[in-house]
Description:
Layout: E1 2-4, E2 21-23, H1 26-38, H2 54-58, H3 64-76, E3 81-92, E4 97-107, E5 110-113, E6 120-121
Amino acid sequence: MRYRKLSSSGDYTFGNGLLDFYQDSPEAIGQAVQTALLFWQGEWFLNIDEGTPYMTQILGKRSKDEADRAIRNRVLSVTGVTDIASYASVLDPDSRKMAVTDLTINTVYGPTTVQIVNYVNF
């Protein structure tokens, strides 16, 4: 698997040849998981079924367990992910925000920790 690296601001990196890519590494799949979680279902006009089901399974009057299940299923749907080694999330009912605080996955290339950079408002 070859996956273009993202910069710290979330943009594709360019100008460094092959150094701009992850190649057959746990980091490639970790970044694929990260971008999959940032991609909302219905956002891509060519396939509105693709994406994380925030509107239908996570946001609104849903329990933390339902939201966790949807996020875990999305992670497991990414090519190269074999299982989730550790997962933790926090729900703040006062601000109605949920954050994935720990996500370590096992991949076909080995384990990696996924950096989750966003909070989801319920």
